[in-house]
Design brief:
Layout (H helix, E strand, L loop, with lengths): L3 E2 L8 H5 L5 E2 L7 E2 L9 H5 L5 E2 L16 E4 L9 H5 L5 E3 L12 E3 L10 H5 L5 E4 L22
Antiparallel strand pairs: 1-4, 2-3, 5-8, 6-7
């Protein structure tokens, strides 16, 4: 199955620009189309569409979501073998293999080193042969209250 673009599409091209597998085509200011054979059902098009003109596999309209709240890969370093499949398949180059901490260090693993580039498509998770990657929703950043002097409290201070 795949996502679908409805008649509400204004042709803004946001979905086509962000699709990690280039499954969306169309001209500016015209309704876009999703190639059902190419679509990987990641939902990125639905999260970015400002007109909510994308429906999911069940025909339900997708709602746009702030990019800061998109899911991101959570990589279990203990389970990751650093095979690089996720790094190679990441269309935005948001992942990399960590550098060894010392000569002979074999405990390297994949990491999300450019989270601002990540679209949350989950291709990395689906391609991981060890199941070491989970997609996690982003939490709202904690806002620390200012203390009486107008500064953020120091770590460990109440």
């Amino acid at each position: 199955m795949s996502y679908n673009i409805t008649e509400s599409c204004s042709g803004c091209t946001a979905c086509a620009k962000i699709c990690p597998v280039f499954a969306i085509s169309g001209e500016r200011n015209e309704k876009h189309l999703i190639n059902k054979k190419r679509c990987v059902d990641c939902g990125v098009c639905g999260r970015i569409c400002p007109k909510n003109a994308v429906t999911d596999n069940f025909g339900k309209a997708c709602v746009s979501v702030k990019r800061s709240q998109w899911p991101k890969p959570d990589i279990n370093a203990e389970e990751c073998s650093a095979c690089s499949i996720c790094v190679h398949d990441c269309t935005t180059s948001a992942l990399r293999i960590t550098k060894p901490k010392f000569k002979g260090d074999i405990r390297v693993h994949a990491e999300l080193y450019q989270p601002q580039k990540c679209t949350g498509c989950g291709i990395c998770r689906s391609r991981c042969p060890l199941g070491a990657i989970k997609m996690s929703a982003q939490e709202t950043p904690q806002i620390h209250p200012l203390n009486s002097s107008g500064e953020k409290p120091k770590e460990g201070a109440s």
